[in-house]
Write a structure and sequence with these properties.
Number of strands: 7
Number of helices: 6
Helix content: 25-40%
Radius of gyration: 20 Å
Strand content: 5-15%
Distance between the termini: 52 Å
Largest sheet: 4 strands, parallel
Structural class: alpha/beta
Strand order of the largest sheet: 4-5-6-7
Length: about 200
């Protein structure tokens, strides 16, 4: 098998442009932004594609492309305010892009029509982006989507606040994960993470 191109960065718009090209030989896609092409000896990367507005990306649930039932996948923003060396999520731009409550509510209604039994939040954390959380909370209250459903999410104890607790209290079955890579401060320092055990226990 041969690889004609790799998508670099976010792929929704780039992939759409590639598959809608009538001809997709290497010479015909050289002007597509956000890809890398192999010429047999080295990779050639085209200019970066601007980051998309998350509210303009279509939802597979709204498009009825997802089989009924099961667990939904939910994303309210991209990126992470932390820049841990073992992870590529860390960026200062992406966390500024969040989905609006109206966009999320539309997706919740679509998930409801498909009979999903809950959602897995794939954000870096429930409480790492205040603007995104506000929009999620608003959409959840507007639709009452989670009253009898589960929500699986990660929470950072050092940043937990009363609004987060009240949000989780309104979830039918909240399943909360608290990520901690290690209790060894030397290990954490090597991956650019910090840890205060007394603060962790208190929170």
């Amino acid at each position: 098998a041969a690889i004609d191109a790799l998508i670099v960065g976010e792929g929704e718009l780039t992939f759409l442009e590639l598959v809608t090209r009538q001809h997709r030989q290497p010479r015909n896609i050289a002007d597509v932004r956000g890809i890398a092409q192999w010429d047999g000896a080295e990779w050639h990367q085209t200019p970066k594609r601007p980051l998309a507005d998350l509210n303009e990306l279509p939802s597979p649930y709204v498009m009825q492309l997802v089989p009924p039932g099961g667990l939904g996948v939910l994303q309210t923003y991209r990126g992470c305010p932390y820049t841990c060396s073992f992870c590529e999520w860390g960026t200062m731009e992406s966390p500024k892009r969040v989905r609006t409550a109206d966009h999320l509510a539309q997706e919740f209604d679509a998930m409801d029509s498909l009979g999903v039994d809950g959602a897995l939040l794939v954000d870096a954390g429930l409480n790492l982006n205040s603007k995104a959380f506000e929009q999620l909370d608003k959409a959840a209250q507007q639709t009452d989507f989670f009253r009898h459903r589960k929500l699986i999410s990660e929470v950072y104890p050092a940043k937990i606040q009363d609004p987060h607790i009240r949000f989780l209290e309104r979830i039918g079955n909240p399943l909360v994960g608290i990520g901690l890579q290690s209790f060894d401060n030397d290990v954490l320092a090597n991956v650019e993470r910090s840890f205060d055990e007394s603060r962790f226990i208190t929170n």
